[in-house]
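Appendix B, Record 12. Input sequence as logged:
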Amino acid sequence: MSINTNRREVSSPDEVLVSTDLVEDRLRSDFWREVTRPFYETTPLIGSESPLLEGTIRSRQVAGLQFVSVAFNAQRYNRDRRIIAWSGLDQYLIAVVAADMSGDFAGTSVKAQPGDICVLDLAQVLQTDVAAGGMFSTLIPRRTLAKATANANLHGVILKAHLPMTKLLAAYLEGLNDLGGQLSDDEAAAVQEALVTILAAALRGEQADGAGDLRPLSVALRQRALDFIDHNIKNPDLSPDLVLRHFNVSRAHLYRAFAEDGGISSVIRDRRLDAAFLELTRADVTARSITEIAFAFGFSNGTHFLRRFRTRFGLTPREARRERPSRQPAPELQAHFLELGRRASGLTNK
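Logged structural output:
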């Protein structure tokens, strides 16, 4: 596969390599779909030279951060609510682009060129087309970047290649990925803090007017409330009033913290739907009925659950159960890539 990301490749013992070059042609498309599925549903780009999907991923962990270098032919990526719920990824992906990219990021039209840096919020939907080329990216924990940017909506923000802060950020990411040896906990924390500081400074000039104006106290309340909701997702009494009583805050303060999400009620409903989707599509447990799952996650009306589920995921609960993946995602990305790398080696040796 003649794809080059124009990066200096560093081979290290902790690096995981996964490539369609290691499997037969007839298996490549399905294999690459499985490799990329934690991020996207990947399909060939219409009008591209090859109907096959091809790609190579090099993944390693440095200073507690995941770095992924990807090379690919022309492809289309779709991250919908099903992929978001199934993958469990809830970070920001910061991508140094080495191929022309254009798409729709949750209703915002986005275009990027080689050298640009694109921010993807993995909790939001997108559909994007990429030309043959590559991408170098890292994952940033949500709460870390949300705190530094006052919970601004960063999905689809493009840092243009010619800007000084973009060049500095790209160089810093490259330097981190090239680090060898182990860092102490204090060193790793300093590395992450410096990265977020540089990234937040670069993003500050790219945010739309009014973005990132949520007060620090509201940012903190929002994260604590989300943690509380997730912890009590099966509690039938979970409601905005329960959250209000637990944190002893005013209704106006709580609703202001979730204004960009459509309100606290919408957040509770959507997180319950996501949890129900995961339960429906799990392949490693004895299946419960759809009605039992709906009740378990706070939906006392089956018709209401069906309607909301179809609106969020584009299919019915029964269809979701029928289309569930053959296996569950690995709990960590590195484990996912390692498993598929071993599988590719096994296919090669057959």
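DSSP finds 13 helices and twelve strands in the chain.
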